Amino acid sequence: MIVLSHFQIQPLLKAHQQELTTAITSTDLNLTTTAGQLTSEGIIYPNDECLSWDDAHEIADAENNCFILEDRSITKIQGFSEFTHRHYTLMPTASAPTMLISGIPMHRIKDTNPFEDTLSKVKTLAPVAGRVLDTATGLGYTAIEMSKTAEEVTTIELDPAAQDIARLNPWSRTLFENPKIKQLIGDSFDQIEAFEDHAFSRILHDPPTFALAGDLYSLEFYRQLFRVLKSKGRLFHYIGDLNSPSGTRVSKGAFKRLQEAGFKRVERRHEAFGLLAYK
User: Fold this and answer.
1) Same-domain pairing of 63 and 114
2) Based on CB atoms within 10 Å of each CB, which residue in 36, 41, 51, 258 is the most buried?
3) Does the residue 11 lie in any domain?
């Protein structure tokens, strides 16, 4: 499967203008590189798939979209969920792509990138070992990163439509291939009740915004997180910029409710845009 964005296409257009006949490019959003043949017809990839110059210009002009190239036709990687009534779009960056949920990026992209954003979250929980819980799969980056050292990662995705986007993202491939990652489909608010007490040594809680998933910021849910976390375990709760008006408001309430749920030590981790809670 060839997946492209303007980051891969714009250099090829420039090379074509310079009348070059070959150029180094990528067919998987810069995970790997390959050679493309630049012809009068378009760009010929090693599997003989062809991207016409008209389609190349369309991709180059679409800053917020990734495309699949198949049978010489391009298709935007996006979808609408009948379940949540949300629009999902795979949005490219110079690094790993993010996903827009009704226009809101699910990773930090200002002065950073989704890959570095993921590393900053997971770093707060280091060392990551044993069984760990990821309460919101999304594109699976946190589950993938934690699986590198954890014994097992359980990750929960609310919306099958979001998982469909992840399946088309080259950077999410390990999510579906690594046997250490156990995927569940459902609402974390409900799914967490099925886990036994003290099941996880680490929890990464990176929910959608408060406006989209207020129940995942509730005292009732925090008490469940406390219940399934092992003694001396840690929870990282992504909030957003703690210094922004909304981040200040949401983090203040979350800080208080986490303490009420039983977490006696809660720290603000500005570098990771969230709260770190200890049991």
Assistant:
1) no
2) 51
3) yes
Same domain? For 203 and 251 the reply is yes
In a domain, 89, yes or no: no
- Give dist(CA 78, CA 57) in Å, integer: 19
Q: pLDDT tens per residue, the chain (279 residues)? A: 999 999 999 999 999 999 999 999 999 999 999 999 999 999 999 999 999 999 999 999 999 999 999 999 999 999 999 999 999 999 999 999 999 999 989 998 988 999 999 999 999 999 999 999 999 999 999 999 999 999 999 999 999 999 999 999 999 999 999 999 999 999 999 999 999 999 999 999 999 888 888 999 999 999 999 999 999 999 999 999 999 999 999 999 999 999 999 999 999 999 999 999 999
In a domain, 62, yes or no: yes
Domain span holding position 173: 106-278
Same domain, 165 and 205: yes
Distance of CA 224 to the CA centre of its chain: 24
pTM > 0.90: yes or no: yes
Q: What is the CATH number of the domain that holds 240?
A: 3.40.50.150
Of 80, 79, 78, 110, nearest to 93 by C-alpha is 110
